[in-house]
């Protein structure tokens, strides 16, 4: 794992997006694994800018997203479908048929198998972007996840519900379940780009950096096992 220490959020977003731009420039039909949440917004803004300047072309790029809340409409401004369209897909020259996000409608286990089938068809991704949850979750793989997990319906923990309540008017509105890509598919990427910014990430980052131990109760620790993982952190997240 390569730890890349950044000055601040802008620097982190620039360094992480530079790596992605490089990969897309070298491979027109790159496959990107994408995350939502507040951390990747700066990276997506930079990708939009590079696309506007004509430096990168998304016309042959395919994307696959990590997760989605269950029980909210795609059109809801809190859905990850809405987030991706608003922050990236509506602003770049991507063919939306080449973008994939798990469905928010289904609690049906068969739908998880369908998403796994899609992931199998897509095969190894070139990049997987990941944020870190305050409890160390990766995508929505909460504590007590395992390395061989595939797409699952997850009961969100109280800590995740609390952390995500900042996006909703009241905590009651935060969905209690999500569908998430499993760790084994997250790992099926040539490069992992993990980004952590700001004081809210301090505790999780400290815990991660304090030990080399791989701990299923702290899923982010699994990233140490990936052969080509970049962890971008800013000073605010690092300072103790
Ligand atoms: C989002 C996702 C989550 C977030 C994590 C950090 O697709 O999979 O694991 O990456 O909750 O979220 P932010 O960036 O909002 O702190």
Explain what the structure shows.
α7 links the parallel β9 (189-196) and β10 (229-234). The strands form two sheets. A seven-stranded parallel β-sheet has the order 1-10-9-6-2-3-5. It has a three-stranded antiparallel β-sheet with strand order 4-8-7, with no helix packed on it. The chain is of the alpha/beta class. It has eight helices and ten strands. The model has no long low-confidence stretch (mean pLDDT 96). 41% of the residues are buried. α1 crosses α2 (41-52). Bound molecules: fructose -6-phosphate.
Strand order of the largest sheet: 1-10-9-6-2-3-5
Uncertain residue ranges: none
Determine the structural class based on helices, strands and strand pairing.
Answer: alpha/beta
Bound compounds, please? fructose -6-phosphate
Query: What is the helix fraction of residues, given as a range?
Result: 25-40%
Total strands: 10
| Global shape | globular
| Termini gap | 21 Å
Main sheet overview: 7 strands, parallel
Report the order of strands and helices.
EHEHEEHEHEEHEHEHEH
Mean pLDDT: 96
How many separate helices? 8
> Which value, in Å, is the CA radius of gyration?
17 Å
Beta-strand residue fraction: 15-25%
Summarize, please.
32% of the residues lie in helices and 20% in strands.
Detail the topology: elements first, then pairings.
Elements: E1 2-6, H1 9-26, E2 31-34, H2 41-52, E3 62-65, E4 67-69, H3 80-87, E5 99-100, H4 109-122, E6 125-131, E7 152-155, H5 158-164, E8 177-180, H6 183-186, E9 189-196, H7 202-210, E10 229-234, H8 235-238
The site of fructose -6-phosphate (F6R) has 13 residues, from loops.
